[in-house]
Amino acid sequence: MLHRMVWMQIAVVAVIVQVSNGAGYSQVINPGDRILADITCLLKNGDIIMTTDEALANNEAQHKSDIFLPFKEYGPLDIMAGAEPEKPPVLMLLDRGFEGAVTSWLQKTVVGMKEGEAKRLEMTASVPEGLPDNERYLSLSRQMKRKLKQRIPLEAFRKIVGKDPEIGMMHDFSPELKCVVTAFDQEGVDTRLIVEDGRKVSTPWGPGTLKILDEETYAVEVNPRVGQLIRTAHLVGRISGVKEDTFIIDYGNPLGGETICCDIEIMEVKKEKNLSEGIEGGS
What we know:
By secondary structure, this protein is mainly beta.
């Protein structure tokens, strides 16, 4: 399931929605040029789903989509512009995911733009014909079981917590849960999660409820909603079905079936001496 590389189609469906004033533009981008570009992508409702602007990403007043994933490092994307191919631009979904889809599309879109130019474009994607269901859909249990006790290598614990372990020490296991140190030795640290039975939590699949099953196990019982966008690591999907014990995520469209608005600004153009070499067609 979701194991074979799949070619997906990405296209610009709405021409330019907004273009900044052309005064002061300099170098035109050609295939093979290396460029630095700032980009912010939003859903139609204005929720941000991707941005290279650290200040915008950290602005709590700016609403983020559930599929928003912050970058580890911010700053303009460094990409190589590619010529528009004879066939529509494509990407390997399972290798590249959402950010890969945007980058692949951007490589084609920037050709012909100029240094200093800014545009707002709309981007969409389609599911290819013949995509097998077992590579498009993923079925998950609505009751996700987890272990209450965990053993963490000593050095990993020091790196996470920032100090040596002590019996009874508590630290954050996740934004929703804490754990307590129950024992340790020279090789590792034994911890136990502190789980409040019946507590409501947020999950990537919708609201959830914690439930203690036994001395060793707890579960997160999720309440997914059909149509909800889902972020699973680098992939974006949409919940397409909910049953009593399971729910189904559709990963067939790398953009979750959304039309996305992307604000692009070309910060710098680095001209290539030989434009026939090194053109990246979506990598």
